[in-house]
């Protein structure tokens, strides 16, 4: 199953409570899930808490991609402040095999400007492939000259994770599409081509 969205998701500012998104997915025996929503665009003073919980059968496969763009740079928008909490948990047969939490709180632009965080990038994405390994690393690294932003990959314990950072949503989409095509044997959803 390949799942996507009809358009980019937009999360606007909140002056009071957080926006909460909770995704719960199960992939049964012999199943393969490609979770490929289009980008999430967040605006200044956003307050977003998103959690993604996935349960995999022992032989299930997963390709999970999530991208976040901080403001629409083509419109001159920036995300000066806000809160983003993005939490992923993946379990196989009930045992935790992958856990990640990203939190940006307060001065978002200043945090993203830090060299070790995004070096000024305003668009980020993560891709997780299970099972994944050294072949995936070799494939992504072979594309290095074609990426327009920063792209890195690591593999361990039968998993592969790709991290992407870009100065704009357009560049991120270009790099993300290249990475997904390299990691996934099926064509990307048609909606990604618009």
Break the fold down into its secondary structure elements and pairings.
Layout: E1 2-3, E2 9-11, E3 19-27, E4 32-35, E5 40-42, E6 46-56, E7 61-70, E8 81-92, E9 95-107, H1 108-113, E10 123-130, H2 134-142, E11 150-156, E12 159-166, H3 169-183
Strand content: over 45%
Radius of gyration, CA atoms, in whole angstroms? 16 Å
Number of helices: 3
Tertiary shape: globular
Give me the strand/helix succession: EEEEEEEEEHEHEEH
The overall pLDDT average reads 92
What structural category characterises the helix and strand content? alpha/beta
State the share of residues found in helices, binned by percent: 10-25%
Distance between the termini: 21 Å
Task: Write up this protein.
- The chain is of the alpha/beta class.
- The chain contains three helices and twelve strands; from the N terminus they run E-E-E-E-E-E-E-E-E-H-E-H-E-E-H.
- Strands 1, 2, 4, 5, 7, 10, 11 and 12 form an eight-stranded mixed sheet that branches. The protein has a four-stranded mixed sheet with strand order 3-6-8-9.
- The model has no long low-confidence stretch (mean pLDDT 92).
Name the features.
single chain, 194 residues, alpha/beta, eight-stranded mixed β-sheet, four-stranded mixed β-sheet, 15% helix, globular
